[in-house]
Amino acid sequence: MAEYYLRMDGVNLANFVLDTQSLNIIRGGGLLLLDAVSRVKKATHAGHTLDPVSTGASSGLFHFTAPDDDAACKVREGVIALLRQDDDLRHATIMVEVLPAEPDGAFLPTREKLLAVNRWRQMQAPSLAIPPGTGQEVCGFDLVRPARAVARGPQGKPIGESSWRRHEFGRTMKQDFYAQWSGLPEEKLPGFTNEFATLANGAGFGNLNGKMAVFYVDGNGFGKLQQQHCTSRVTQKGFDDFIQGKRQELLRTLLQECMADSDWMHFAELRLETLLWGGDEIIWVAPAWKGWWLAERFFALSAGWQYQGTDAEGTQFCETLTHAGGLVFCHDKAPIHRITRLVRDLAEIAKGVSRTRNLLAYQVLESFDHLGADPARWRQSQCPPGVTADALLVAGENLATIAAQAGEVRRALPRRRLYAIVTALFDNSAETDDLIAEARAVVERAGGLASLDAVLAAFGGGRAAWLHLLELWDYLDPERTP
Questions:
Q1: Which residue range forms the structural domain that includes residue 255?
Q2: In the chain, how many domains are there?
Q3: Pair 229, 98 in one domain
Q4: In a domain, 397, yes or no
Q5: What whole-number distance in Å separates Cα of residue 28 and Cα of residue 34?
């Protein structure tokens, strides 16, 4: 029997996950791709079972044995048939490829070749699965595919088969997702909000009512680490199991902490949404008044992650794992596909500064159109003289200090004084230092100087720290009014 590898990859996510504003449809698309990997793993294909080596949010690498190339091709055809015949998954574009293991048993060349062939097939295929039917009415949610002939979707809109399938899967399976990936018993989990408007509905939080936070994290150099240390099927699977185990611990702890905090709850439903889960990437959506807390808890819970093992030469290694984060505060009606692109861009900005540190880039958006097409250039344009955009990043380990001390600062420092300082910074005014000294004196009389100094230092010190404080004023330790 010869050894083979099969790689499947869900692609064109803009046409299957982020092509609508409906939360149930978005969730359903993401969960279906995650579930596709599981369905392929559990099934038998042309009499062969697949052994998972590495799985992600929409991709899976599997190992199997077969008598020859013809038999291996039949395995690939079996996987494709399973995906195309599934009423839910046939609306996704999922690339599938099989290659034999290298004669010398080398793992990395096969893995990279499979990735390349998946990409090559993607370039040759349509960017969305062409739906059957010749109806003239257009789906009212993705505005691309034809609508179903009979059923109407939410709000009575015409709905296409793809959107309908994703909507129903997302509505019914969200509870299963949190139970499966956190390890918590389903009966101990609350319900979860179904729409962004419900998630962000918080009249007691003043001007944060109707606003949400979108938080994205991506591992720093995880690909490079795997190139160096995951040089065999066994070590690749070991790394994959390690990451999945850490993610499960993190999600379980987060859910337990959220359930204990009434500010996370909308009646009996938890205000948390997971738009992406798998590999080294996560996208969460939370109410705006919990966005900073969510980012702080992620960096705190992942701070001690270290991957240890023995490489192919028998040398032991220990790699500290870090993450880059992007956090956007926005209105609940902001175009989610553009917001998710922005949080990814922000994480890339953080990676551009350091791929060995936990760093967060955030953005407060009152209107999405204010940002423009180049986030990095726009961020620099928002800096006062003498301040670079790099100073707008926040170290992951400092988020906890900011969260803990910000409430005292908000109570001790009048906001108008903060406005005056930041205005003077942008004007490059000679009065800036005097305004800072006056503000510090006011805070000291109120007993909050130690907290102010701690927050400013956590923001990196210097003049940019005052800009951080003003920008995030409403989002740091907000208080619910009765």
A1: 190-381
A2: 3
A3: no
A4: no
A5: 10
Q: Which residues contact 422 (CB under 8 A, 6 or more apart)?
A: 384, 466, 467, 470
Query: Is residue 360 a contact partner of residue 351, using CB atoms and an 8 Å limit?
Result: no
CB 307 within 8 A of CB 239: yes
Say which CATH number the domain at 2 has. Answer: 3.30.70.270
Is 318 a residue whose pLDDT tops 90? yes
CA distances to 191, 334, 363, 370, 392 from 367, rounded to whole Å, are 31, 8, 11, 6, 19
Q: Strands 191-192 and 269-270: what pairing?
A: parallel
Amino acid identity at 225: L
Going edge to edge, which strands form the sheet with 323-331? 273-278, 281-287, 211-219, 323-331, 359-364, 394-395
Co-location of 101 and 119 in the same domain: yes
339 and 245 in a common domain: yes
What is the Cα–Cα distance from 68 to 52, expressed in whole angstroms? 20
At 221-233, the pLDDT tens digits run: 999 999 999 999 9
Q: Are residues 323 and 198 in the same domain?
A: yes
Specify the long-range contacts of residues 179-182, CB closer than 8 Å, at least 24 apart. Answer: 181/247, 181/248, 181/251, 181/277, 182/248, 182/251, 182/252, 182/255
Q: Is residue 480 part of a domain?
A: no
Judge whether 396 lies within some domain: no
How big is the chain, counted in residues?
482
Query: Which residue, chain included where needed, has tokens 């590495």?
Result: 54
Residues in Cβ contact with 200 at an 8 Å cutoff, skipping those fewer than 6 apart? 209, 210, 211, 212, 271, 287, 288, 331, 332
- The per-residue pLDDT for range 460-469, each reduced to its tens digit, is 999 999 999 9
Tell me, yes or no, whether 295 and 343 share the same domain: yes
